[in-house]
């Protein structure tokens, strides 16, 4: 499955647009991770516990988006983007979305 943030894929032509596709993940750190992250925030700098949380959530959201695109019959997702937000100050929501398409090699 090709996933790209661009509208076009060099060397390929879009033969069918199947519609929008997305993958959603909501994650929360455990109590220990939140306490560690809170202590790190006092000092400043990167908070690895939250960095890993966001990286894992984005990867998982992309995987779900790809699964949904596959079910739709796509072999690519173009114009892929992320959106994220906070839920109740304790959870992180990440959405990966784009347009599911069928690509063929350009003549």
Key words describing this protein structure:
42% strand; 4 strands; 2 helices; 4-stranded mixed sheet; single chain; 107 residues; alpha+beta
What is shown here, in short?
Helix content is 36%, strand content 42%. It is an alpha+beta fold. Strand 3 (76-87) and strand 4 form a beta hairpin.
Assign an overall shape.
elongated
What topology, given as strand order, has the largest sheet?
1-3-4-2
Q: What is the β-strand count?
A: 4
Low-confidence stretches: none
Report on the architecture of this protein.
The chain is of the alpha+beta class. 36% of the residues lie in helices and 42% in strands. A four-stranded mixed β-sheet has the order 1-3-4-2. The longest helix is centred in the middle third of the chain and has 25 residues. It is elongated. The chain starts with a strand and ends with a strand.
List the helices and strands and how they pair.
Elements: E1 2-3, E2 12-27, H1 31-43, H2 48-72, E3 76-87, E4 91-105
Parallel strand pairs: 1-3
Antiparallel strand pairs: 2-4, 3-4
């Amino acid at each position: 499955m090709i996933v790209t943030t661009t509208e076009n894929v060099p060397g390929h032509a879009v033969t069918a647009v199947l519609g929008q596709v997305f993958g959603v993940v909501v994650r929360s750190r455990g109590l220990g991770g939140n306490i560690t992250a809170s202590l790190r925030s006092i000092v400043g700098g990167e908070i690895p516990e939250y960095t890993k949380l966001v990286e894992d959530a984005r990867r998982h959201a992309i995987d779900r988006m790809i699964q949904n695109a596959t079910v739709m019959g796509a072999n690519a997702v173009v114009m892929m983007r992320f959106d994220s937000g906070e839920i109740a100050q304790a959870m992180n929501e990440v959405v990966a979305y784009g347009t599911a398409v069928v690509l063929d090699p350009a003549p």
